[in-house]
Predict the structure.
Amino acid sequence: MNGNDISRDQWMLKGPLAKKGYDWWWHSFTGEKEGTEERKPFYVEFFTCNPAHAEDEPVIVWNDKQKQEAGILPSYLMVNVGYWGEDHGQLHRFFSLKDVEIDGGVPFQIKAADCFCSERYTEGSISLSDDEVQSHPEWMCDAGEISWKLKIYKDIAFNVGYGASQPLRKLNAFEMFWHAEGMKTLYEGEIILNGVKYIVRPENSNGYADKNWGGDFTSPWVWLSSNNLKSAITGEKLNNSVFDIGGGRPKVGPVALNRKLLGGIYYEGKFYEFNFSKVWTLSRTEFDCKETEDEIQWYVNQTTRTARLETRIHCLKKEMLNINYESPDGYKRHNRLWNGGTGKGVLKLYARSASGKETLIDEIIAEEIGCEYGVY
């Protein structure tokens, strides 16, 4: 599970995916308002789409019927930076891929104007006025100013194994691939939001870094992760622990599999993995996600021959945003993709014997959980 493999972080939009595919690098973390202990979660994402269709200007479709009927496909780099809380927002900056420098090898790096991202560092800025946003509804974002400079130290990986291996990548076997090289990532630097500076410290950044790529998005779409964890039994902070759960309904070519999630928890130096592709572990997952009037709720129950993890999470909708993506075919299918960074919950980790008897290892209180849920 903790198999670092930065080859999975290289740019994947080659061959068929260059004509109809997306690839993004995602980073999320928490900063503290300068001079205070007030904490605020952020994300920084570099999202690329359809390089083979690049024009001199970024091509944005977002369900534009005239463009769809004309067979026009989107093509751009979208630098997408956002923040969670009651004042949540997402800011988008678009570039033609003709104006983007991409080293798609190992390690990767991507640069457009003052925006840069690699395995070890990211920086950039976005500035959008109210008038600009109102004049360009296709940008699908909020107004504001944000800039960032961050060192990246990827500490613990979640390698999903054969499902994203080189042979299956070459075949584009899955509609949506996932790799979390930094399931636990330490960030160091600063981010400035509308003139307010937040300091990001490695020891409490609660950082996460992953990437997704493919030809379309999954539905349902589920993601949960945090390393801001504490034992409810001892009251001690779990400084060497992190959990990560993701997936929905994988598609192999045109065939949709049953609802499945991949997940794992690194608990104080020991891995517990729940991966349906590793059939010898007898991994099984049940999950239920629902939207109430005030919040999104997740319930996930994962078992193998040797362990069980029960996860219950909730996040207030007023602190979340509906994050915006369009598929490579130019259709925006996810219109209520709830995305947050202030989730809270409880995880119960059990050891299982050969006879199925369970022994509680720990009950874990999780905060500042990165979380997503959407269905189309």
Remarks:
- The longest helix spans residues 130-135.
